[in-house]
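Q: Start with the shorter request: fold the first protein.
A: Done. Sequence, then structure:
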Amino acid sequence: MTRNPFSPDDLAAIEAAVRAAETRTSGEIYCVVAEDSGDDRLTPLAWAAGVALLAPAILLLAGVKVSAPSLEIWSSAQVVDVTETLVRAALIGTLMLQVALFVTTFLLVSIPAVRRALTPRGFKRDRVVRHAEEQFLSKNLHATRDRTGVLIYVSLAERMAELIADEGIDAKVAPETWNLAMAALTSGLKRGAAAEGFIAAIDLCGDVLAEHFPPRAGDNPNELSDAVVMLPGR
């Protein structure tokens, strides 16, 4: 289980930051923190299978040879029998090594910290993006009045974040505009100051939204909750 870096005071501070940012804009900021973004249990299997396939190469590099006794006075039938026996022994030895490598690697990579470290970064990135998109739709960020919802999503196990802006924002704000906010958020996650990074990102998002989507006087409803949504592991 991934340790939750947010204390109750941290969550209250993040909620307050969202509330303050939204007073400056008609946009909506919604924060989601997930323990993880999906199942990486296939990682041990993939590594175990890959390492097991190296068994023949390991035997060759180790200098293991299959040798037969002198066959000068043997009959053809005896030669065939000996050859079959040697080939069978070589195959059995290779299979036994493959099984040993498979089991050992599988058990090692099944350790959560090792499994996360050995899961390819690109795979984790795709998984985080996919889960963020699921949350964007499931939390109805696409249903705000002017399509001006912004999701700030953090996945703790992967130590990655994603920001998704609705189409009303995308029409006016270039995607790279959010880079500064995302850099502040990921920097906070990496240095162990998750709440600080979150609040900095929210303030920067508020600046962008305030510039392009100022609040309407007397008509600025709070369409989405300001509280951080905490999602358990999947």
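Q: Next, the second protein, separately.
A: Sequence, then structure:
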Amino acid sequence: MNHLIILPVLLPAVLGAGLVLARRVGLRVQRLVGLAGTLALLTLAVLLLVQATTSAAQGYFLGGWPAPFGIVLVLDRLAALMLVLTAALAVLVLIYATATGWDARGAHFHALYLFQLMGLNGAFLTGDAFNLFVFFEVLLIASYGLMIHSGGAARLRAGVQYVAYNLVASALFLIALATLYGVTGTLNLADLAGKVARLAPGDAALIRVAGVLLLAVFGIKAALVPLHFWLPASYANAPGPVAALFAVMTKVGAYAVLRVFTLVFPPETPDTGHLFANLLLALALATLVVGAIGVLGAATLTRLVAFAVIAGVGTLFIALADFTPQGTAAALYYLIHSTLAGAALFLLADLVAARRAGCGLRNALPPIAQHGVIAALFFVAALAMAGMPPLSGFVGKLMILDANRGPGMVLIWPIVLLGSLVMIAGYARAGSRLFWKAHELAGPATPHPAQPLAFAAASALLAALVALTVFAAPVMRYLDATAAALHGPSAYIAANALPGALP
């Protein structure tokens, strides 16, 4: 077996546990371990991406137990892509957290950060629905610790709300898994794919219930309307670098929908496939509308970015709901773009808040230190997030619109285009009050350290968006092949079972 496959889960687990046990080590050692660990994860992710590109999907069977009885990790093109995206984002966010001193404001930041990466990587690699639940819980525990890092009443209230919503999702997840297991006798994803396709008509109702419950669970994780209420307060009150890392958290829900509903509940499944696609499209359109209105009316810059993340989720799920290779490829491109752009905006919001007593948008405020640089970076990030040319947001939305040509375009195209227009107005309003009108107020800017590494991290995220635009053609070749493999999952199913293990 290829033992590299387990290292993205094992490495952060070991390093995180080591930092917790060695409580007396200084902050410098914690930073060294954290940064070295995330850089190692990025190196591993790139190696696994190369392997996934040059060979078929590969399975890793812990203890040599065959599916569906043992724990299985599966590396394919989609899992490798998500590993690289997560690791690259983690490195830049950790550099920012270290440069701004956020990691020194509370205990165990680096350990929790590594456990968060363990949960993310495990969710992307697991080939079993129950272990997907387990890694979701690892994510929940670590993310709660990161969210309330450095304390504060508002942060604690938002954290409690975040945990409450996600505990509801966990309960629904367990009920869905129990239903699936009761009907099929398995929770291995490859095994489920075969058994759901061969179910007797009398079991279709229970499978529909399980599918709707799973859609609700993944919708909560992704912040789909009307399951999005936890996100604006949670992300707006979280520490800046934590919110930036959380930009990939909503994509875990999107990943789970893509993995489960192309493998276990594909559109051609009788009585279920089109039901889930139509339901998902309606929720996606509503999510985009709510997110765009939230961007326009946000009272603070952090809430604006939180609603921008919600709008990005809606746009992403419009493409996912198409459930075709073309729509899936467009969704994956937009997933990469929205993760990087959302993280960049959260870091820029933190830079603004650190130079003012908050980042309110109700009134114009005096200039801030490094005013011009931050304004220029915000302008680029806003262009990207709104989907304006020439950056990757524009390219991604064009792909999504192109994938939705047909009868549904009468509804989808106007909502996507008008949503973009509303968000442009929201970003223009925010930029005007934060940067342009600041020059109308008297008084010099309050001095603040330059923090070049923090600016470098935020700039690197924007540079990645430029690279995603310039190299859109080779990126789309990879994503087209990934989408084709998802909609023709024979290689994934074969990798998820030792020979003769699955009937």
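Q: Describe the second briefly.
A: DSSP finds 20 helices and two strands in the chain. The beta strands are 58-61, 72-75.
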